[in-house]
Design brief:
Strand content: 5-15%
Largest sheet: 2 strands, antiparallel
Helix content: over 70%
Number of domains: 1
Length: 128
Amino acid sequence: MRFVLVSAITAVAVWVVTLLPLDVVVEGGDAGPWARIGVFLLIGAVIALANAFVKPIVDVLSLPIKILTLGLFALVTSWFMLWFSAWLTTLVPWAELTLGAFWETLLAALLISIVTAILTAIVPGARR
């Protein structure tokens, strides 16, 4: 149940970022509003799965660089997880997360993290 909540919260965060001019585009779900919501939920689930399974490995591997940069490299790992999730969505034929330039996507990854953290604090049952 917690995974469904985290996926929905991440989907809302991605939706908020797509409303901003940050070159983050969600393609697919042209059949209607429920199909569009399903696409966002799929992308939220992909990002939640990537953050649950791949991000701990990336964090451990990038720990020396994070220590040298006093934690600023965590933004790059967040960007990498967003890029990795966008790559994973290219494998699905009816939904795709498209990213633009590096700096805009870095800001988008930061905003997705902030919105996800705020919504996780607000929604009951979403915390660990």
